[in-house]
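Quiz preparation item.
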């Protein structure tokens, strides 16, 4: 083959590769400027999701008004939720035992719910399944109304809760109460529980193993209460309810689903709001709670800080 022909062949191959790369990236027409190296293209595709940018609209569209979140109707045979992935970040961390299947059967009637929650609380009280049992004064099971439409899930008891045996009775709890009343509920209209039932020493974040050990109790609480909406307070509650994934700052204010059935609204933990009481942070939490009210078909009281 002559040099000229070889050169022509190479130019043709390069042109094919160029066009293929741009198709891969979803661009039409011939590109302006140099294509980035192949590796950068691959990395881009990874960070933009499996389907890549071709699926994305090329020009920003006006945001449609967000409809009230509609969890799939179980009778409409919703596709089963994706199995949860094991935590990737910490090698050796246990997978959190979060069921991914919808609930079996109907919610129990009020009397049976109360009886079964009472039995569960009695099982939790002497629990020594993890290290947290050693330093606690007592377990902290729940507070509020077992028939509630709205459930708040926090991280775990602090010193005040450990002393009094009820969740959210300290400073963060007082702020949570204000939030609840601000939403138009009485303090005990809602149901409140935590990811772990014993106080982590020094109020540290519960370890993955402690969370994994304790989570079956919360799973049963949710199964019995069967609230219409769950508010996940902070990063640990979010991880405990939905598994490892994006952080609270990223997902707060966006609806998630617990077991493909119960809408979950992640928001900042009241303790974070106490530490960072800026109008911006308070505004974000209030906007998340307003979404909850909308989802529950309740009117939004005007906000008093
Ligand atoms: N913080 C929590 O997450 N839960 C409590 O019960 C108290 C403080």
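Solution:
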């Amino acid at each position: 083959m002559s040099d000229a022909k070889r050169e022509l062949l190479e130019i043709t191959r390069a042109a094919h590769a160029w066009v293929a790369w741009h198709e891969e990236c979803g661009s039409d027409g011939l590109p302006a400027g140099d294509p980035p190296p192949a590796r950068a293209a691959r990395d881009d595709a990874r960070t933009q999701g499996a389907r890549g940018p071709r699926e994305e609209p090329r020009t920003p569209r006006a945001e449609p008004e967000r409809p009230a979140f509609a969890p799939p109707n179980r009778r409409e045979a919703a596709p089963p939720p994706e199995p949860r992935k094991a935590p990737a970040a910490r090698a050796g961390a246990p997978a959190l035992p979060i069921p991914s299947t919808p609930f079996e059967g109907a919610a129990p009637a009020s009397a049976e719910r109360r009886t079964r929650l009472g039995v569960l609380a009695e099982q939790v009280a002497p629990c020594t399944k993890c290290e947290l049992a050693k330093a606690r004064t007592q377990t902290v099971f729940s507070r509020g109304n077992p028939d509630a439409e709205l459930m708040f899930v926090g991280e775990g008891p602090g010193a005040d809760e450990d002393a009094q045996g009820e969740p959210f009775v300290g400073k963060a709890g007082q702020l949570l109460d204000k939030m609840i009343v601000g939403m138009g509920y009485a303090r005990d209209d809602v149901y409140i529980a935590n990811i772990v039932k014993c106080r982590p020493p020094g109020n540290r974040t519960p370890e993955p193993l402690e969370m994994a050990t304790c989570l079956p109790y919360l799973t049963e609480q949710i199964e019995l209460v069967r609230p219409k909406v769950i508010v996940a307070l902070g990063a640990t509650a979010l991880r405990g309810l939905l598994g490892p994934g994006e952080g609270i700052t990223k997902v707060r204010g966006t609806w998630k689903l617990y077991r493909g059935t119960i809408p979950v609204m992640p928001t900042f933990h009241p303790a974070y709001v106490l530490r960072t009481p800026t109008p911006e942070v308070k505004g974000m939490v209030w906007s998340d709670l307003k979404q909850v009210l909308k989802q529950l078909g309740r009117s939004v009281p005007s906000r008093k800080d």
